[in-house]
Amino acid sequence: MDALIVVDLQNDFMDDGALPVDGAYDVVPLANEAMSRFDIVVATQDWHPPNHGSFADNHEGVQPGEVFELDGLDQVAWPAHCVQGDAGSEFVNGVHTDRFDAVFRKGTDPRVDSYSGFYDNGRRKSTGLTEWLRERGVARVCVLGVATDYCVKFTALDAASEGFATTLLLDGCAGVDMTPGDVDRAVDEMRAAGVSIGSVAELSMR
Ligand code: VGL
Ligand code: ZN
After folding, report:
1. pLDDT score of 205 more than 90
2. Catalytic one of 106, 113, 120, 153
């Protein structure tokens, strides 16, 4: 069984959002196209409390983009985003959310960020996504969404390390690229970890 994992298609990550990702709106039609080709679709949703430790504003003298230490882990300081229940945390209009079989929320613990849909950044807690997929007989997952160099990357790396045959649908992704080259390096890292690089365009030709 194959499943599609749709990562963080939320208002705050769109081109005009609180944590803008260039090209994120272009991902929406590709996500919808890809979803129509899978029996099982799961979505991740970044879902932070207002006091989340990844928000620059919650720390004296820390600017967005800086790396600081949060509870023993290196942490990029982000502008406040995806606050639970705010409009910015909602899925983007036009995403076929009725195709989501399940939504896995992450980033709820203020002390640790959570890029992957499987585990928080400290690997302290699982979201249950592995078990959810295994119970349904999923052996292969495809991943798309935002951001290529953060939540998509860590979700795809964890999927591969959990033993799923994992494909990144690269045309269905958009990245932050804070330091130019971050997206390319993220793709290289995924490939080196055994993730196949594919595209929604190829799915459509099957
Ligand atoms: C993300 C930074 C902070 C993402 C989430 O969805 O890639 N990036 N929170
Ligand atoms: Zn976040």
Report:
1. no
2. 106
> What is d(CA 42, CA 170) in angstroms, rounded to the nearest whole number?
18
Q: What is the 3-state secondary structure (H, E, C) of 78-115?
A: ECCCCECCCHHHCECCCCCHHHCCEEEEECCCCCCCCC
Quick: pLDDT tens for 159-190. Answer: 999 999 999 999 999 999 999 999 999 999 99
Helix axes 153-161, 182-192, angle to 10 degrees: 10
pLDDT 10s digits, 114-127: 999 999 999 999 99
Kindly report, residue by residue over 3-53, the tens digit of the pLDDT: 999 999 999 999 999 999 999 999 999 999 999 999 999 999 999 999 999
Dist. CA 2 → ligand 2 center (Å): 27
State if residue 154 touches ligand 1 by the CB under 6 angstroms criterion.
no
Q: Of all protein residues, whose CA lies closest to atom 8 belonging to ligand 1?
A: 150
159 lines ligand 1 (CB under 6 A): no
Domains assigned to the chain: 2-47+80-203 (3.40.50.850)
Q: Does the C-beta of 177 come closer than 6 Å to ligand 1?
A: no
Whose atoms come closest to the Cα of 77: which ligand?
A: 1
CB contact at 8 A, 25 and 15: yes
Ligand 1 touching residue 183 (CB < 6 A):
no
8 is catalytic: yes
Active site residue 151: yes
* In the predicted structure, residue 206 carries a pLDDT above the cut 90: no
